[in-house]
């Protein structure tokens, strides 16, 4: 039987739970329209306070996920995975509960609705009540929640998330949040009952309460250790994220609300609190990644698809949402600032086989790669990222689609030639990309039509297929480039490569491999039932209802991947682009060669078998 007050009554409403704010909104509208003399503003205050409290939690979550700023000060080194994100999806349920409690209190005590804007005496009274009522009350009840029935039925839910973040502060059962209402409400009601309450006190105390709760759950140490060394008494007056994270790690210590003084009096201070705090301040908790995937932003909208903007949005495949339009101006301004700053930053990480894999991003957007004057600047940033990875001790760095553009840097050849002594292996991952595309093609196909035929991938695909005695219609206007590729094929297979110069040449071919963007008119040349395999960035738009369209080449990461909580652009959860997967395989195999420049056709099957061996699977 489910314990009472252990689940939220609106759990099954989904986003419709926000309609529960309707009565408060209706009261605000009614007061504004019909109470012209003295409109009742307290429902408006409750709604504004709820919005501000949600913003506090969101801003702390954004800060905690800005790994380029916080990675050296993280208390727990693990990433927040999809399971935790889904579990904490409705972290804001407590705001609905407490908004109604706040409105009920306001209308049960009319004097509260007439509070002045500010009264400094109330701050002193609230502080005293917080120290001598809220802090000890929370401490003893919190300890009770860690025993037997209460922990099993209620508090274990809060401790079920492995990596605390600000949203974890709100992730608890209704009973626990009712208790928090008492803890948070005691100083406010006490100040109001003594005639020293004010609207400013309510806003300030509630927001500061949430701020400190979010700070403790942020998993990022923000308080300098030197402060506690200079004033040792402070360590008992204000807790730190390290202090509270130890409570989540070991559970039976560090029970205080905000003041470790009560843990000291109760004998429950974790002995590692101050030593760990010092280690994290010195950056000793930072892990050097073994593998780095150097990504880039596609466009302004996709730049919002990162964990430090909205964690939940980043955990789903990218798609256009109405709220993105509202954020576009801010994202555009940040794009300009990043363009000026020009520094590669860390956006996500995960662990595979117990080794750290990081995703870095070059602050350049897709269109910028096609600006002639931006080429040198982009290459400089990629080069700096490679040198930084080499200095850190990274073993393999894999380049994302446009970062290895042939016209930009020869598929990474530029950097390897310029720095022949690199210890980090630079990988474009295109060998596995070719393998994924080739293994999608049905075994009984006798003829394919290939666009982008003289590109790096197109060349490898054509040479591989002709060896399998499959006729390849290679779309290219350059007879010289075609002949160069044809000469690379075994003499007995060269006749399987056929140059064509028009799309109409493929009007009877139902297998198209697309390496160049196709307009609707060009797609019309394909016969009904055609399947479009593709390796073009951005992917083509499916205009034909009588044809099918494949996704960009991708692979699913092994089942034992840990801490992955971000979808890679439009890919499903746990799925990464084939070039990303190619770098992972390169690292797992321990290969010591650079994979840059032209694709070695002889290695396509080798890389494919290695990927399957390590648990990567085709999508």
TrEMBL record:
Pfam families: CER1-like_C, FA_hydroxylase. InterPro entries: CER1-like_C (IPR021940), Fatty_acid_hydroxylase (IPR006694), NAD(P)-bd_dom_sf (IPR036291), Sterol_Desaturase_Related (IPR050307). It comes from Elaeis guineensis var. tenera (Oil palm). Belongs to the sterol desaturase family. It catalyses: a long-chain fatty aldehyde + 2 NADPH + O2 + H(+) = a long-chain alkane + formate + 2 NADP(+) + H2O. The lineage of its organism: Eukaryota, Viridiplantae, Streptophyta, Embryophyta, Tracheophyta. One of its GO terms (cellular component) is endoplasmic reticulum membrane. This is aldehyde oxygenase (deformylating). It is a multi-pass membrane protein. It comes from the Eukaryota. One of its GO terms (biological process) is lipid biosynthetic process. The chain crosses the membrane at residues 44-70, 91-110, 122-141, 178-206, 291-310, 322-341. Residues 448-618 form the Very-long-chain aldehyde decarbonylase CER1-like C-terminal domain. Its main location: endoplasmic reticulum. Its EC number is 4.1.99.5. Keywords: Endoplasmic reticulum, Lyase, Membrane, Transmembrane, Transmembrane helix. It is an enzyme of class 4 (lyase). SUPFAM superfamilies: NAD(P)-binding Rossmann-fold domains (SSF51735). GO terms for molecular function: aldehyde oxygenase (deformylating) activity; iron ion binding; oxidoreductase activity.
């Amino acid at each position: 039987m489910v314990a009472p007050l252990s689940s939220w009554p609106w759990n099954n409403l989904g986003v419709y739970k926000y309609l529960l704010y309707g009565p408060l909104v209706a009261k605000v509208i009614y007061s504004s329209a019909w109470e012209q003399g003295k409109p009742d503003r307290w429902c408006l205050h409750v709604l504004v306070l709820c919005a501000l409290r949600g913003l506090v939690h969101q801003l702390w979550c954004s800060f905690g996920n800005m790994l380029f700023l916080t990675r050296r000060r993280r208390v727990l080194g693990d990433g927040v995975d999809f399971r935790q994100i889904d579990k904490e999806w409705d972290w804001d349920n407590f705001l609905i509960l407490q908004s109604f409690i706040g409105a009920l209190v306001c209308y049960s005590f009319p004097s509260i609705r007439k509070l002045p804007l500010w009264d400094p005496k109330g701050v002193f009274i609230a502080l005293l009540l917080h120290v001598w009522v809220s802090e000890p009350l929370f401490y003893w009840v919190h300890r009770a929640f860690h025993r037997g029935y209460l922990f099993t039925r209620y508090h274990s839910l809060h401790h079920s998330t492995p990596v605390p973040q600000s949203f974890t502060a709100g992730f608890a059962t209704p009973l626990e949040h009712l208790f928090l209402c008492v803890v948070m409400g005691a100083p406010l009601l006490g100040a109001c009952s003594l005639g020293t309450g004010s609207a400013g006190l309510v806003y300030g105390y509630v927001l500061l309460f949430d701020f400190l709760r979010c700070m403790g759950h942020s998993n990022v140490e923000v308080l300098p250790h030197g402060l506690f060394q200079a004033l040792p008494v402070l360590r008992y007056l204000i807790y730190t994220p390290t202090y509270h994270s130890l409570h989540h790690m070991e559970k039976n210590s560090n029970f205080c609300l905000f003041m470790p003084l009560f843990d000291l009096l109760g004998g429950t201070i974790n002995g590692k609190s101050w030593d760990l705090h010092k280690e994290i301040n010195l950056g000793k908790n930072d892990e050097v990644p073994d593998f780095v995937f150097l990504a880039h932003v596609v466009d302004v909208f996709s730049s919002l698809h990162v964990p430090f903007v909205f964690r939940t949005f980043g955990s789903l495949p990218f798609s256009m949402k109405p709220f993105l339009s509202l954020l576009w101006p801010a994202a555009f301004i940040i794009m300009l600032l990043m363009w000026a700053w020009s520094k590669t930053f860390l956006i996500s990480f995960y662990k595979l086989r117990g080794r750290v894999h990081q995703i870095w991003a070059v602050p350049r957007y897709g269109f910028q790669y096609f600006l002639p004057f931006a080429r040198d600047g982009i290459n400089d940033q990629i080069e700096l990222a490679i040198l930084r990875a080499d200095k850190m001790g990274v073993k393999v760095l894999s380049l994302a689609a446009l970062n290895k553009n042939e016209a930009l840097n020869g598929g990474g050849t530029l950097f390897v030639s310029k720095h022949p002594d690199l210890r980090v292996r630079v990988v474009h991952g295109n060998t596995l990309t070719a393998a994924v595309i080739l293994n999608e093609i049905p075994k009984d196909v006798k003829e394919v039509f290939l666009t982008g035929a003289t590109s790096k991938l197109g060349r490898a695909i054509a040479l591989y297929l002709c060896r399998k005695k499959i006729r390849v219609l290679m779309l290219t206007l350059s007879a010289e480039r075609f002949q160069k590729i044809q000469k690379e094929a075994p003499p007995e297979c060269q006749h399987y490569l056929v140059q064509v110069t028009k799309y109409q040449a493929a009007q009877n071919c139902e297998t198209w491999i697309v390496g160049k963007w196709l307009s609707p008119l060009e797609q019309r040349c394909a016969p009904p039932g055609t399947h479009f395999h593709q390796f073009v960035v951005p992917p083509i738009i499916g205009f034909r209802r009588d044809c099918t369209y494949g996704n960009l080449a991708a692979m699913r990461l092994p089942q034992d991947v840990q801490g992955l909580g971000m979808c890679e652009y439009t890919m499903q959860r746990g799925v990464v682009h084939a070039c990303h997967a190619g770098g992972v395989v390169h690292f797992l195999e321990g290969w010591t060669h650079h994979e840059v420049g032209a694709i070695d056709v002889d290695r396509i099957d080798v890389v494919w078998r290695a990927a399957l061996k390590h648990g990567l699977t085709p999508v």
